[in-house]
Amino acid sequence: MNDILIVDDERDIRELISDILIDEGYSTRLAGTSESAMRQINEKRPSMLILDIWLKDSSMDGIDILKYVKANYTDVPVVIISGHGNIEIAVAAIKQGAFDFIEKPFNLDQLIVVIRRAMEVSSLRLENAVLKNQYREPLNLNGQSTVFKLLKGKLDKVSKSNGRVLITGAYGSGKETAARYIHAHSNRSEAPMIVVNCGAINADSADAALFGTEKNNKVSKLGFFEKAQGGVLFFDEIADLPLLTQSKLLRVLIDQNYNRLDGKEQVKLDVRIISTTSQNLKKEIEAGTFREELYHRLNVVPILIPSLEDRREDIPLLAEYFLMEFNKKLNLPKRSLTKEAATALQNMIWPGNIRQLKNIIERILIMGPHHGLIELEELPKNESRSQNDDTKFLLSDGITTLPLRDARELFEREYLLTQINKFGGNISRTAKFVGMERSALHRKLKSLGVVSANRGNTLSP
User: Fold this and answer.
1) What distance in Å separates the CA atoms of residue 175 and residue 304, rounded to the nearest whole number?
2) 76/78 Cα distance (integer angstroms)
3) I need a surface site. Which of 109, 121, 179, 390 has the fewest CB within 10 A?
């Protein structure tokens, strides 16, 4: 990112600076008025600004633009230049957040040194922000099941494009994590991913929240679209967006531009839209609560996140990941699961999906002993499958999307785990019921990625 916007009302000066910076390997944009500068800033966030304080025939001076940039793009360094420099102006500029102040006529070597230093600082800040974001929001894409591998393959393909994505799945299944994975592996990863909580959007204030506001021909507040400019705008639970707001969002997607509230100038759209929902949008369309045309605009690339029950073989891996994560980040006890406990987790019901599993692991670490393996007795009893659940087979959404060979393997794993759970983990009784030799059942379980324990007759993953 080496895009520098040069703002000066003297054409010769801005072109001179531009020529020098291009020779140094930077790309530049030029603006002679505050109006041109603001338009270019909002169309595409620059990596850096070189800004003259006094701008003839402009509604804003350099300090006004500096205030706006530091309020809305805090990571963009601004170097102030002025032919009317004095100590008061320099101090005022630095107080408002300018990286440095250079008085005209300036030494070109000095200007280049300041620009290089400003770009290096900006790059370090960006790296630091990315690392902090990764630490705060880990990408929990952990799994080895066929269903998981198919999902990850789709996410990797989607990440390489700029197409709109609609992610569907049950609550707690990892829809936002999938969206963050797409952003982190896309060509927009260095730009922000702005989250819009659609359930918190009020129809009366939606315009200001989404598109921002202007006052006296100046931007007074950035909306979600402008904050995400160059990056990703993530609509969480899009079905909760008010119907009137849906219409306005649809118009923006069609026109690829919008106006701020009380603003006259159109802002060009440069964001990638990713949406999620736990609802059946086709039923919402039939009920008249979701616009069909908006659905088709958003649903360019559909991604279905499987439930945790559709990928039971990943549960021990996910559980161990959360155990390590809580130890590292929350300083909770460092513990692991016994094989019996891991097997029991695989056979629980998971209406809350990955979020429920994560909560259970955290609860065990907080309430349980501070050392030793996590035993079967520490797991919650009320979240195990009932007897009726054990004997009832439902064809899940995940299995219907698989080729026959993969679906058969998934069914066999689910079936055998259900039978083992019914017989309390007793391999001999399970083998007798399913009509297999005990040694043949051990081999089958191993081939399915479920390894039987040697002590007693119990099973563990």
Assistant:
1) 9
2) 7
3) 109
- For domain 146-304, say whether CATH 3.40.50.1240 is its number: no
Q: How far apart are CA 321 and CA 144, in angstroms?
A: 13
DSSP character string of 120-171: HHHHHHHHHHHHHHHHHS-------SHHHHHHHHHHHHHHTS---EEEE--T
Single-letter residue type at 60: M
Q: Which residue has the tokens 């129809």?
A: 203
Q: Which of 102-111, 303-312, 419-428, 440-449 tops mean pLDDT?
A: 303-312
Q: Give CA–CA dist 62/92, Å, rounded.
A: 11
Beta partners for residue 80, in sequence order:
51, 101
Task: State phi, psi for 347 to the nearest 5 degrees.
Answer: -110, 10
Q: Which residues of 171-201 are buried (b: 16+ CB within 10 A; e: fewer)?
A: ebbbbbbbbbbbbbebebeebbbbbbebeeb
pLDDT at 457 > cutoff 60 = no
What are the extents of the domains in the chain?
3-133, 146-304, 309-447
What is the C-alpha separation between 416 and 313, in angstroms, rounded? Answer: 12
Helix (H) or strand (E) holding 314, with range, is none
In this structure, the strands spanning 218-221 and 213-215 are antiparallel
Distance CA 29, CA 378 (A): 63
N-to-C CA span, the chain: 47
Residues, the chain, total?
A: 461
Confidence band (pLDDT; 50, 70, 90) for 7? very high
Least confidently predicted of 237-251, 289-303, 424-438: 424-438
Secondary structure (3-state) at 261: strand
3-133 shares its CATH topology with 146-304: yes
Instruction: Give the pair of three-digit tokens for residue 180.
Output: 């963050």
Cβ contact 50:6 at 8 Å: yes
The beta-strand segments (E) located in 206-281 are 213-215, 218-221, 232-236, 257-259, 266-268, 272-277
pLDDT digits (tens, 9 = 90+) for 204-228: 889 999 999 888 777 778 889 988 9
pLDDT tens track for 123-172: 766 665 555 555 444 455 788 888 999 999 999 999 999 999 999 999 99
Asked if residue 419 lies in contact with residue 430, where contact means CB atoms within 8 angstroms, the answer is: yes
Is residue 264 within 8 A of residue 258, CB to CB? The reply is: no
Q: Read off the pLDDT of each residue in 89-111 and give the average, rounded to a whole number.
A: 82
Single out the residue of 156, 242, 145 nearest to residue 198, CA to CA.
242
For domain 3-133, say whether CATH 3.50.50.60 is its number.
no
Domain 309-447 part of CATH 3.40.50.2300: no
Instruction: Return all residues near 336 (Cβ < 8 A) that are at least 6 apart.
Output: 320, 323, 373, 374
